[in-house]
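cache lookup: miss for this entity combination. No prior model stored, computing from scratch. Input as submitted by user K.M.:
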Amino acid sequence: MILENYQIASHNSELLAKHQRRLAFIADEVADTEAIIQKLINFQIGIPSWALGTGGTRFGRFSSGGEPRNIEEKIEDIGLLHKLNAASGSISLHIPWDTADDVQAIKALVAQHGLSFDAMNSNTFQDQAGQAHSYKFGSLQHVNKGVRKQAIEHNIEVIRQGVELGSKALTVWLADGSCFPGQLNFRTAFQNTLESLQEIYAALPADWKVFVEYKAFEPNFYSTTVGDWGQSLLYASKLGPKAYTLVDLGHHLPNANIEQIVSLLLMEGKLGGFHFNDSKYGDDDLTAGSLKPYQLFLIFNELVEGMDARNMKHHSDLGWMIDASHNVKDPLEDLLQSVEAIMLAYAQALSVDRKALEQAQEANDVARAQELLQQAFRTDLRPLVAEARLRAGAALAPLELFRKIKVREELIKSRGLKTVATGL
Ligand code: LRH
Ligand code: MN
Ligand code: MN
């Protein structure tokens, strides 16, 4: 489905007067809104290929239909999101789910939609048809060298495919661990994993990064071999300067102080990027900001402060990716909501009065520090995010426009009602 410029223009002109009133009010309330808007225009968030289809619930999978059936249609869907919000400018692929047959055609399609390739993801957490060894007892950690070798080679193949496409990073997430005490020698599992990662690291091109994603748990687990930021940082430090930790917000034990983790990883120059999502209980991959928007803001507060202190470029020095998907919402609507929530948290963090906060911290003025953060969080900055979109040629209210022009209905017409996206 093609979204035409005139459709965006007529949608925007209908909302313009109201938007301008709200924007003028904010410009009066918040210092330097111009600088915030510029940063928002530059900011881009990577969309995971695996989030475009409907996930399953306990009761079954209830697809809304019209899902992308192949990588080309996934790119088209992300192109559509990007056209609507001008902030979803890249795609993160998962191999083998997204292996491209015709690399040149895929590259051309991505360029045609104004997109780029974000980090490539390897998959050694599912046995694939026809593979020689099973990952029943782990992949890069496995006691058997042959299994480790197979998993290493898969990662090297993912790098190869990523190089052809023009990606610049590999994300490694492992479901390696153990189910019962005594099953694993922790140190052997760590050493095996490290050696395997070293072989993968050796295959990285000079301008590539590898992100080591951690996760505290999987169902049935007793131990996880990359279970927390400490272990991930240990691997990343031992591997070398091209290795970084990736923070998926859903991968922590309940109530973890993620903003503090982010702050320290940044300080060490080892924060690679994010998988944004939200959750109440586990790795639920729910819409970013849908449950804990204050936490999302506090994370961005650390990012803005820490990146500025290190002279890092906000839009390009970290990997900003979503790892969310939904099973009772339209996946495209869900992604529009996630991007909006991330942009809003970023805008709020940019609006914090840094000097005043520093002074409050130096003076141990706890109440003032809290007031400053909550002032930023409780000011409605949505008009700034909308203004950034307007200036970038996108829609003032993407979700509204998505519904008005009946995108899902059109996708069902062209792709059918019963569709299964490749992936999870
Ligand atoms: C694991 C994870 C990881 C995978 C993705 C599908 O829970 O977060 O990033 O690659 O989900
Ligand atoms: Mn993830
Ligand atoms: Mn996850």
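stored under new cache key. The chain has a mean pLDDT of 97.
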